[in-house]
Amino acid sequence: MIDFVRGRVIHWETEYVIVDVRDIGYQVYTPNPYSFVKNDDAVTIFTHHHVREDATLLFGFATREEQSMFRKLLEVSGIGPRVALGILAGGKPEAVAAAIQQENIAFLTKLPGIGKKTAQRMILDLKDKLDALTTGFGGAAAGLALVDMMDSGGGASEGGTAWQEAREALAALGYTAAELDRAWHVLKGTVKPDETVDALMKKALQQLFKG
């Protein structure tokens, strides 16, 4: 089992990053590859080592909480690694955990790849298994507050969670707060409620390239 890798991110795509660990390049699939772009600084990526008949894959996360939630999601019938990764791309682990404990099907069905039946299975299979996780997140109350904000269409600040993650990744690429604010001012009228972090990244970069 590979629990984490530490090294420099030397390449990234929309679904994964390549991490140079002592001259070995590990391909790591992650919810937001752009969050690991930090110039030449070494990063630690907490991983889940997934082995199947036709492939050996690494899925990676910025925090232990994301790693733990990913592994819990894999316990749900019908949820594989790709769907679990999409869930964490669409919602913070504390918000997902709180929504499960709150039996908030409306929130869960907004996550990528999750229909009503899968949301019900998530609640049935995980509701009583997330106490330790929500404690690690700082308590269920904080997670429930985040669910309430996301249900109402907002996030920690303007643009919702997807834009905030995209903004953080763009800032890591060297763009200033002023540049990102200008890009968002142009984009916000065209952004759809289900817009992904990757889609927002691409739209923002197109605007930033225009100056």
TrEMBL record:
Compartments (UniProt record): Cytoplasm
GO molecular function ontology, one term from the record: hydrolase activity
SMART domains documented for this protein: HhH1 (SM00278)
Subunit structure: Homotetramer. Forms an RuvA(8)-RuvB(12)-Holliday junction (HJ) complex. HJ DNA is sandwiched between 2 RuvA tetramers; dsDNA enters through RuvA and exits via RuvB. An RuvB hexamer assembles on each DNA strand where it exits the tetramer. Each RuvB hexamer is contacted by two RuvA subunits (via domain III) on 2 adjacent RuvB subunits; this complex drives branch migration. In the full resolvosome a probable DNA-RuvA(4)-RuvB(12)-RuvC(2) complex forms which resolves the HJ.
Region described as Domain III: spans on this chain: 158-211
Keyword tags: ATP-binding, Cytoplasm, DNA damage, DNA recombination, DNA repair, DNA-binding, Helicase, Hydrolase, Nucleotide-binding
Pfam families associated with the record: HHH_5, RuvA_C, RuvA_N
Function statement: The RuvA-RuvB-RuvC complex processes Holliday junction (HJ) DNA during genetic recombination and DNA repair, while the RuvA-RuvB complex plays an important role in the rescue of blocked DNA replication forks via replication fork reversal (RFR). RuvA specifically binds to HJ cruciform DNA, conferring on it an open structure. The RuvB hexamer acts as an ATP-dependent pump, pulling dsDNA into and through the RuvAB complex. HJ branch migration allows RuvC to scan DNA until it finds its consensus sequence, where it cleaves and resolves the cruciform DNA.
Domains as described in the record: Has three domains with a flexible linker between the domains II and III and assumes an 'L' shape. Domain III is highly mobile and contacts RuvB.
Keyword Metal-binding assigned: no
Gene that encodes it: ruvA
Domain annotation Helix-hairpin-helix DNA-binding motif class: ranges: 71-90, 106-125
Family per record: Belongs to the RuvA family.
NCBIfam families: ruvA
Protein name (database record): Holliday junction branch migration complex subunit RuvA
